[in-house]
Amino acid sequence: DAGVIQSPRHEVTEMGQEVTLRCKPISGHDYLFWYRQTMMRGLELLIYFNNNVPIDDSGMPEDRFSAKMPNASFSTLKIQPSEPRDSAVYFCASSLAGGGYTFGSGTRLTVV
Amino acid sequence: GENVEQHPSTLSVQEGDSAVIKCTYSDSASNYFPWYKQELGKRPQLIIDIRSNVGEKKDQRIAVTLNKTAKHFSLHITETQPEDSAVYFCAASGAGSYQLTFGKGTKLSVIP
């Protein structure tokens, strides 16, 4: 298995633009998580899905953030409109129930 | 919700010495405690984990101990090597919830 695959690896965008981050979990994993990592706040859970259904989105900062999982092999995290404070590394991770996470390589987002 | 505190935030040791990182958690129902290693610019990777029905687990130079009564767990690395230099994160998840709450991380530097 190729592991958790995220794209793009790097994204630089201007304030106000829409940003879409993509994730392909490990086949067979039934949990998918989106985390944001910054120096100040560490690893923060944004939202997680179980069997493609959003379970807890209480970590989503505000209405500018949305996430979808249309099928078991694909998820997106969208920011619209983007702001400089959204600059961070966004990680997707997947797991089996009760197991450890496997993280993707992350997307480094810079909003200028 | 769960709160995980991790200490120290930075740790420097001489090559060959031992390193200990400690974490406390708040939710007495938490039952899964993984540790992740993150090298600079890379994804967090699971290095060892322990469940609440086990007090200690060892894998070569790495060991984790759990004290459920005190609600703390620790990572022990023996015979440290320069390649052990990284940021280490502890995490905890509660019963019935598969989302992990992460500590803020410990930057370990092994001095040759």
Describe this structure in words.
The complex is a heterodimer of chains A (112) and B (112). By secondary structure, chain A is mainly beta. Helix content of chain A is 0%, strand content 55%. In chain A, the strands form two sheets. In chain A, strands 2, 4, 5, 6, 9, 10 and 11 form a seven-stranded mixed sheet that branches. The model of chain A has no long low-confidence stretch (mean pLDDT 95). The mean pLDDT of chain B is 94. Helix content of chain B is 0%, strand content 58%. In chain B, a hairpin with a 6-residue loop joins strand 4 and strand 5. Chain B is globular. Chain B has strands spanning 4-7, 10-14, 19-25, 30-38, 45-51, 56-59, 62-67, 72-77, 86-94, 101-102, 106-111. Chain B is mainly β and 112 residues long. In chain B, strands 2, 4, 5, 9, 10 and 11 form a six-stranded mixed sheet that branches. A five-stranded antiparallel sheet of chain B has the order 1-3-8-7-6, with no helix packed on it. Chain B is built from no helices and eleven strands. The interface between A and B is medium-sized, with 19 and 17 residues.
Largest sheet of chain B at a glance? 6 strands, mixed
Largest interface: A-B, 19 and 17 residues
Structural class of chain B: mainly beta
Beta fraction of chain B = over 45%
Radius of gyration of chain A: 13 Å
Terminal-residue CA separation of chain B? 41 Å
Total number of strands of chain B: 11
- Compute the number of helices of chain A: 0
Total strands of chain A: the figure is 11
* Coarse morphology of chain A: globular
Oligomer: heterodimer
Main sheet attributes: strand count, strand direction, barrel closure of chain A: 7 strands, mixed
Q: Which series of helices and strands of chain B comes N to C?
A: EEEEEEEEEEE
> Topology as H/E string of chain A?
EEEEEEEEEEE
> Compute the gyration radius of chain B: what is it?
13 Å
Shape of chain B: globular
Mean pLDDT of chain A: 95
